Amino acid sequence: MSSETGLNRCAAPASYLKVSDIAKSVHYYKDLLGFHVDMFDTGFALVSFDQVTIMLQRPPAGNPVEQALAAYIWVSDVDDYHRRFEAQGVKVTPPVENLEWGLKEFAVKDPDGHELRFGQILFSSQRMALTA
């Protein structure tokens, strides 16, 4: 998409997660996963690291947190993140796995059950053949 003054640009997408307790979620993302807290009040928080941004929002009173969602976060050294999270006492499930399609990954779950999967591309030159 373009305009007369130049290209319209988009920023990186942000995951948007509804959480039951903002303070508990901010603690998890900041103190256990190492995110920076960009904004924090009683009903909303914005946490980030590098180019990853996650918005956390408490639903209005009487509305439950919807089913857990998932986000995929690309990293350059998945083993480093795995070691850091385990050192902080974060439950990692499953353990780091090398997947047959060229990814190495693991997952963590936040206090509301939202899954964050951290992955690294092992090799980008391999292409999988599609079979009919």
Q: What are the defining features of this structure?
A:
132 residues, alpha+beta, 2,3-Dihydroxybiphenyl 1,2-Dioxygenase, domain 1, 4-stranded mixed β-sheet, 16% helix, globular, disordered C terminus
Would you give an account of this structure?
The protein has 132 residues and is α+β, with helices and mostly antiparallel strands. 16% of the residues are buried. It has helices at residues 22-32, 78-87; strands at 2-3, 6-7, 15-18, 36-40, 44-49, 52-57, 70-74, 97-98, 103-109, 115-121. Helices cover 16% and strands 35% of the residues. It contains two helices and ten strands; from the N terminus they run βββαββββαβββ. A hairpin with a 2-residue loop joins strand 5 (44-49) and strand 6 (52-57). The protein has a single domain (2-121), classed as 2,3-Dihydroxybiphenyl 1,2-Dioxygenase, domain 1. Mean pLDDT is 85; it is low at 125-132. Strands 3-6-5-4 form a four-stranded mixed β-sheet, with helices on one face. It is globular, with a radius of gyration of 17 Å.
